[in-house]
Amino acid sequence: MDPLRGLSPLVVTSPTTRSGTTLLQRLLCSAGNTLVYGEEVGKDLEMQLQILTARRLVYTHSRPRFADNLERFLQGDTNHWLVDLMPPLDDYLAALRQGAFAGLQECQRQAQAAGRTLWGFKYPGWPPHLLRLLSSELPGTRVIYLHRRLADTARSAKAWHDYAEPQMLAFCEQWLANQQAMRERRGDPTVLMLSFESLVQDPAGTLERLRDFLPFEGIDAGLLRDRINNQTHGGGAQHGHNDYIEPAALSAQEQAWVDAAQTAADA
């Protein structure tokens, strides 16, 4: 039996950063049965999935050579090139897979110990191909994909990250590529597409859609009144203060990139 069969994380993600995933995270964590961990969990999982994918390719490509080396060793021949001596690859790859998801298993254990049966993490800008890989490895995965109009997202990103024009162009390209790639998952019952605009303009309808997707209990809609895009307590706040960071104006060139990407996404 697959030791990971019961692992069913919720992933809150978006085409890029500055899309409202932190607001959605706070909202979901207000539900009495839900715990959405932060972005470090997503970073760790992303790295582990990339390693797992790369090593699978290496070992699959060279499987006959590894198998031959192991068989010769088991037959008592140790006087040959042993640099590539490996254990049986199926078992070894299964162990690598188990290790890749060990962090998520601990997240699940801790969430359930806290009485939070719905659990997961938020990580904006996750590449759609990694979402597909995660869903193929863990079929119980559920995804909430939060998208936002690019103009607002770009202004927020420029203010937050102090982006110059080349970085803004890359930001727009990432937003468009991820938006378009996620189109193939529309209609997938394991994915809920939400717009940031509907979340703030029609909270009642959006909360109903959330509850239809997963059984969140007791969400505090009052949290939608607060706009928190900076650290509010203690040191380490971005820009050296604890205040809300206002969106920045876009240059004419940046606005042109934004308009072109939005038009392509809406087509």
TrEMBL record:
InterPro entries: P-loop_NTPase (IPR027417). Keywords: Transferase. It comes from the Bacteria. GO terms for molecular function: transferase activity. Pfam families: Sulfotransfer_3. This is Sulfotransferase. It comes from Arenimonas terrae.
